[in-house]
């Protein structure tokens, strides 16, 4: 059974249809890259998966459970959505780290707030806190940030910020980790360090949906590539097929800009 | 000069009593207007249109008219028009009426500062919190609030210093604050009359008070410099 099934998603902003009947599915441990020009709906699709936008039509299922159904308003309830969001993690283009917290605190915050809702939190506070801290330290270590844990975001480079943001998204152990152009705000020198940790995550079979303009990365790391154009999925499949042998003229046109030069 | 030195203890004693009333009004206004301003800010940002229009109209009226008129209306309206002098007479009644006027007035100014502060926090901060499964309350308390405070300290400092001086308006309803106390020696009080110099001393009280506030608020601003 696929871990993620997206079926017939449509989304309108005012009268403009920005997502036009989007369907795709994803297996556990797979990496899907979504490519396409700006304004093609890639980011909106990710935002729909994370419940930051509500699709006007369609369904989203995770592990067979229907998380969202446009026909069933019971699935839109704010209180329900909060828990459903935890199936997904999201790494933003602009990091959106919390500036008043250190790298470590950024990673720990959400987990601590969730722990407070547990019945045994009060009696077991110290242990729980220590566990959360150890987990956060381990994640930051995995991101190569052992020596940056007590730094505030403004003291970190863009690449370091984005790695903190990845650790923060991983802290809640989402089923599916989404990336929204994670390297677009970085200068080329810093892009590499972020792509490296993403590649490592892929090797550990983290299920990921990555919106990216890094074509080489999409081709080499993804198991599946989706090419979006004007709100449609114009083409999808194995990266080799899509990159080497695109069926659609529009895909060829888009990719030629990256392969030349 | 000798006469002034002789009268100084009497004058300072009167000014101290007046200044105590000034400080009381100042702190009561802050304690009331800080939270009320936040409530009004949320009202004006509400997605429920009638509420947001209602609060915006209130803010427009309060900010668009002089505080002195508000003081007079709030103090005299219940007694003169409704024949129900809710404030009661005496210094206590005047103080309560003045506090209500000041809190309402300053809450409206604060609300606009809060609104600017909240809306100045990038929307990505809220989205990051939502994606991490936080409730809106948690996002406000744990993420937005401190960033908002950092943004509003400079404009708030301005308002707070203005408030120290604005408390003198309460003398229009005969609240016995420091200007009232100083002015009494012009009209004649405790054997001193026609003396303008006590008013200069009142100015010194304001200067010292605002000097301390400037230092304090400056420290707070510095303290929040640890993040950007």
Q: Helix- and strand-based class of chain B?
A: mainly alpha
Give the mean pLDDT of chain B. 93
Helix share, percent of chain A: 25-40%
Instruction: Briefly note the CATH topology name of chain A.
Output: Rossmann fold
CATH architecture of chain B: Orthogonal Bundle
| H-E string of chain B | HHHHHHHH
Largest interface: A-B, 27 and 21 residues
Main β-sheet description of chain A: 6 strands, mixed
What Rg of chain B, in angstroms, do the CA atoms define? Answer: 21 Å
Low-confidence stretches of chain B: none
> What number of domains of chain A?
1
Strand order of the largest sheet of chain A: 6-7-8-3-9-10
Class per helix and strand makeup of chain A: alpha/beta
Return the CATH architecture of chain A.
Answer: 3-Layer(aba) Sandwich
Gap between N and C termini of chain A = 41 Å
Please indicate the percent range of residues of chain A in DSSP E strands (runs of 2 or more).
Answer: 15-25%
**What profile does the largest beta sheet of chain B have?**
none
Question: Outline of this structure?
Answer:
The complex is a heterodimer of chains A (261) and B (228). Chain A has helices spanning 42-49, 78-85, 103-115, 125-142, 158-171, 188-203, 215-221, 239-244, 249-259, and strands at 4-13, 16-26, 31-35, 57-62, 65-69, 88-91, 176-180, 208-211, 224-229, 232-237. Chain A is an alpha/beta fold and 261 residues long.
């Amino acid at each position: 059974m696929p871990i993620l099934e997206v079926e017939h998603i449509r989304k309108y902003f005012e009268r403009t249809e920005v997502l036009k009947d989007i369907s795709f599915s994803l297996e556990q441990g797979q990496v899907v890259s979504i490519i396409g020009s700006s304004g093609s709906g890639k980011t909106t699709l990710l935002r729909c998966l994370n419940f930051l936008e509500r699709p006007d039509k369609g369904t989203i299922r995770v592990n067979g459970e229907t998380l969202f159904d446009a026909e069933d308003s019971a699935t839109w309830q704010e209180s329900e959505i909060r828990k459903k969001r935890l199936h997904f993690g999201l790494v933003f283009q602009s990091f959106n780290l919390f500036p008043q917290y250190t790298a470590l605190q950024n990673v720990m915050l959400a987990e601590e707030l969730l722990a407070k809702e547990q019945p045994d939190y009060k009696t077991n506070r110290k242990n729980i806190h220590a566990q959360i801290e150890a987990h956060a330290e381990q994640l930051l270590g995995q991101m190569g940030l052992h020596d940056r844990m007590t730094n505030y975001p403004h003291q970190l480079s863009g690449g370091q910020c984005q790695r903190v943001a990845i650790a923060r998204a991983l802290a809640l152990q989402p089923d599916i980790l989404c990336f929204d152009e994670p390297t677009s705000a970085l200068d080329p020198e810093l892009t590499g360090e972020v792509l490296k940790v993403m590649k490592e995550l892929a090797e550990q079979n983290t299920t990921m949906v990555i919106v990216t303009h890094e074509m080489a990365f999409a081709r080499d790391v993804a198991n599946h590539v989706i090419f979006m154009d004007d709100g449609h999925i114009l083409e999808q499949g194995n990266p080799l097929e899509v990159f080497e042998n695109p069926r659609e003229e529009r895909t060829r046109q888009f990719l030629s800009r990256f392969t030349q030069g | 000069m000798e006469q002034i030195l002789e009268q100084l203890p009497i004058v300072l004693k009167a000014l101290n009593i007046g200044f105590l009333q000034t400080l009381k009004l100042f702190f009561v206004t802050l304690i009331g207007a800080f939270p009320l301003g936040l409530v009004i800010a949320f009202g004006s940002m509400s997605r429920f249109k009638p509420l947001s229009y209602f609060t915006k109209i209130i803010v427009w009226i309060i900010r668009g008219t002089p505080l002195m008129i508000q003081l007079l209306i709030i103090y005299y309206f219940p007694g003169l028009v409704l024949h129900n002098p809710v404030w009661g007479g005496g210094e206590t009644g005047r103080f309560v009426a003045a506090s209500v006027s000041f809190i309402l007035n300053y809450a409206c100014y604060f609300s606009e500062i809060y609104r600017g502060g909240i809306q100045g926090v990038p929307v990505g901060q809220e989205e990051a919190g939502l994606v991490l499964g936080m409730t809106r309350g948690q996002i406000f308390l744990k993420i937005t609030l401190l960033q908002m405070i950092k943004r509003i300290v400079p404009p708030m400092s301005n308002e707070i210093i203005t408030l120290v001086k604005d408390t003198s308006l309460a003398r229009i309803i005969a609240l016995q604050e420091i200007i009232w106390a100083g002015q009494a020696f012009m009209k004649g009080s405790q054997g001193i009359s026609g003396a303008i110099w006590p008013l200069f001393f009142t100015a010194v009280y304001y200067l010292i008070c605002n000097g301390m506030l400037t230092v304090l608020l400056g420290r707070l601003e510095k303290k929040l410099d640890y993040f950007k």
